[in-house]
Design goal:
Strand order of the largest sheet: 3-2-1-4-5-6-7
Shape: globular
Largest sheet: 7 strands, parallel
Order of helices and strands: EHEHEHEHEHHEHHE
Oligomer: single chain
Helix content: 40-55%
Structural class: alpha/beta
């Protein structure tokens, strides 16, 4: 099982759940700082095999794939978490920022799946991360919205081409500490609980009857009983 962006905001939630289900998890990260800090956020960080790789560089991803196969054998499932939020509307987004968003979201997902495509079969599941904003764009996050929209189209295209089941989740803002710190004045009650996202990821990985879908998660916290 490969989880890209395993040290990001959602990474520990996903890797902990997969480890608890008995999966052998390989995770990617970008910076050493993120790798060092993940042990404070992921309960089962010591059970994840972490590798540093630039997922926007095809040569680096191909070399990474060879290393993973040597170390762990074939990869049967992929969860594509790599990405990152960015602000900016059309007037304050330049070409570099626009391209960076496409690379961060769509290129990372494309190169990862491409590198491991020969290992994926009809029993394999691929879950990529799009966004509610790819379905209903909002002002002020143009490059992010387009990057996540590209992931949506990539998901549908890969599902046609591969034997594996390829789906994506498209959550509203996820209620993780990093997002709360970035938007402290927001109404967190409207955000999507990370546990709900993880539940849907696991469902898509395991459900042989669901393929080629973009599952919109529109927010809301778990109910609290008095």
């Amino acid at each position: 099982m490969l989880v890209t962006g395993a040290t990001g905001n959602m990474g520990p939630y996903v890797t902990d759940s997969l480890i608890e289900s008995g999966a052998d998890v390989v995770g990617t990260y970008v910076t050493e700082t993120a790798r060092d800090e993940v042990a404070t956020r992921a309960e089962h960080a010591d059970a994840v095999s972490y590798y540093q790789v630039d997922l926007t560089d095809q040569a680096a991803v191909d070399a990474f794939a060879e290393t993973v196969v040597d170390d762990h054998g074939s990869v049967d499932h992929i969860v594509g978490l790599a990405g990152g939020f960015s602000m900016g509307g059309v007037s304050d987004t330049d070409a570099d920022a626009f391209q960076a968003a496409l690379n961060r979201h769509a290129t990372t997902a494309f190169l990862t799946v491409k590198a491991f495509a020969e290992h994926l079969d009809e029993h394999s599941g691929v879950v990529l991360f799009s966004s509610d904003r790819a379905i209903t764009p909002v002002g002020g996050t143009l490059a992010y919205d387009v990057g996540k929209g590209a992931v949506r189209t990539l998901t549908e295209s890969l599902d046609v081409e591969l034997e594996a089941r390829v789906n994506a989740v498209a959550p509203f803002l996820i209620d993780v500490p990093g997002n709360r710190e970035a938007m402290p004045d927001a109404d967190f009650s409207e955000w999507t609980a990370p546990e709900a996202v993880v539940d849907e990821v696991v469902h898509l990985l395991s459900n042989a009857g669901v393929t080629g879908q973009i599952v919109q998660l529109t927010g809301g916290q778990p109910g609290v009983e008095d």
